[in-house]
Design a protein that fits this description.
single chain; 3 domains; mainly alpha; Ferritin; 0% strand
């Protein structure tokens, strides 16, 4: 990189730090929660120090600059925060910090000053603040306390319903496609069973890879956090203090907790992993094998439904029976998902039936066309 490019990059960095510092100062002014107000002030102070760092770097390159004014995007965010509260702009600020957290990773002068680690911590801290604002319970938590949300086990139920639905719709479409081609009942049965096995194995493999990749990513993040704790204990101590302050813990108590955790080592790492990264170090997203087996079984349960009549019937009777039992299963699955959504069970069930039968009708038509073409 030549001198002009280096100066231009330093100017951009200076502008970014001024924007962030000004925005955090403004958020601190309008934030009503004392703990969060102090967090925003300290974030602003860190960004101001970064801005002075880039001002010094420019001076070393022979470019004397004054601190620039904040950009128009920052001014708009400040205007919105002052009129509607910091909670309105916090998701935007968090997204911006998250997107920019790696900007210093490949800038040697920034890396030497420890700026990349600070930017990563800021992004994670803002994400934490967005998840848990001490100013009040989030709406979802209030709904659960009022007994209206019924979200207990919702993720597991949703996964079960969608897994069975995938197997049912895909294999119904496959069976109707070969039925439209007027293949022999035995050929349709074998095709349906092959579709069940192939789809179940594919879903299981995909789920295994997804969960295993997530576990490996979590392990990598924990390893990085451990290295940062060993290399920068004071910065991690300050981060722990900010985390507790963001949760509403009094300043002195937060400081004592952070000091004790860092001195003990392992508890500090576990706290940072749980609170900052939102990772349970004991589970790491669950077992990849359990997820794969569950996915295999759920897909198989749905996929066996349209095939089942062909075990006993043939011809038109088997096709009609397959559609009938599949329509019933689709309705039950559609109604089952309303346990989570709270919508009308009849409407959701009928919608699921229409979607599934429409897919089956399309593949039946395609199969009939190919069957006629091959016969001709």
């Amino acid at each position: 990189m030549n001198r002009d490019e280096a100066i231009a990059r330093a100017r951009r960095n200076l502008q970014d730090e001024v924007d962030s510092a000004t925005l955090y100062r403004a958020l601190a002014e309008v934030e009503r929660t004392p703990e969060l107000r102090e967090v925003f002030r300290r974030l602003a102070a860190m960004e101001e120090e970064h801005a002075r760092f880039w001002q010094r770097k420019l001076a070393e390159a022979g470019v004397e600059v004054t601190m620039p004014s904040p950009g128009w995007r920052t001014r708009v965010l400040i205007w919105v925060a002052r009129r509607f509260g910091p909670a309105v702009v916090l998701p935007t600020v968090t997204a911006r910090e998250w997107a920019d957290q790696a900007k210093y990773d490949h800038q040697p002068e920034a890396a030497d000053a420890g700026l990349p680690e600070t930017e990563h911590r800021h992004a994670r801290l803002l994400q934490l603040i967005g998840r848990e604002r001490p100013s009040g319970l989030p709406g979802s938590a209030l709904a659960v306390l009022e007994g209206r949300h019924r979200a207990v086990g919702g993720n597991a139920l949703r996964a079960a319903v969608l897994g069975a639905n995938d197997g049912l719709v895909s294999n119904l479409s496959l069976v109707m496609g070969v039925a439209g081609a007027e293949l022999a009942p035995r050929a349709i049965l074998l095709t349906g069973l092959a579709g069940l096995l192939a789809g179940s194995l594919s879903m299981a493999m995909g789920e295994w890879l997804s969960v295993q990749s997530a576990r490996e990513l979590y392990e990598h993040q924990i390893r990085i956090e451990r290295e940062e704790l060993l290399a920068f204990p004071e910065e991690e101590r300050e981060e722990l203090e900010l985390i507790y302050r963001a949760k509403g813990v009094p300043p002195e108590t937060a400081r004592q907790l952070a000091d004790r955790l860092v001195s003990e080592g392992a508890p500090a790492l576990e706290t940072l992993v749980r609170e900052e990264l939102a990772i349970d170090p004991e589970e790491l997203g669950g077992s990849a094998w359990e997820a794969a087996i569950a996915s295999f079984l759920l897909f198989s349960v749905g996929a066996i439904v349209p095939v089942f009549p062909y075990l006993f019937l043939g011809g038109l009777e088997a096709a009609v029976a397959s559609i009938a039992v599949s329509a019933l299963a689709l309705f039950l699955l559609g109604a089952g998902i309303t346990v989570i959504t709270g919508r009308s069970a009849i409407r959701s069930g009928l919608r699921q039936v229409l979607i599934g039968l429409a897919a089956a009708a399309i593949t039946f038509g395609v199969g009939r066309l190919f069957g006629v073409a091959l016969a001709g």
